[in-house]
């Protein structure tokens, strides 16, 4: 039985749907700080604040989960507006889950890290699994510290924690919130609604990205793999594709020829993006548990526009 915390977010909402599909509604309890607006018949949801450790303990005792997915976090851009809140949520939320998992004997945990753990002195191209990591966003700092904690709780206490350093995730079902890579989602909504988009990242800002279908499939593949195959207990690099705002604009124009792209300067998210890698080496994930992305820029753009057209 799975409890997912932070299930209303961009990744949580689609990962929860996939887990319900795989394990059945009765085995997947979703939770978040407030009710979702799209709960379906037969789905179990619980309102929870991950920082309320007593409430979290009662939730775990009520459902006796064998797995926890902790997706509650404040992302990079919002984190720079409220750094103390971001640290509190991202770190204490994780600590509560780790300590309660120990106390209640919950074996398996999924916790997302991010390419935000890399910083200005990390290699920019094909950034390795192990390299210099000097994150400059509070979000990246909290994710790097979180990786260290996850590895510690595995080595010291044997918790089966598994993690992925997600790149920017692109999806159409749930709008992302407070990220730096969110331009690559907004651009599709704007292209279809208004035929134009003003990017807050400069034309040549290359960032590692991943289509939601690949992200969900990869996460479940990681969690399904036999424990002895999981050699990395900090967090796995994962990459799908890398592109710049100019490149995704060109790809959109192939389908929507009248689409107009423009660029706004001095957005604080530019500095965050500039501190991150342009592309990621995910050979460890490929070797250890068979990771392989399926979407490239062309197929992702096509899929996004087809689905959004129908949805809008
Ligand atoms: C963000 N989407 O922009 C998240 C993610 C790598 C990017 O961490 O903050």
From TrEMBL:
Residues 2-229 form the NAD-dependent epimerase/dehydratase domain. It holds the Pfam family Epimerase. InterPro entries: Epimerase_deHydtase (IPR001509), NAD(P)-bd_dom_sf (IPR036291), NAD(P)_epim/dehydratase (IPR051225). Belongs to the NAD(P)-dependent epimerase/dehydratase family. This is L-threonine 3-dehydrogenase. It comes from Sphingobacterium griseoflavum.
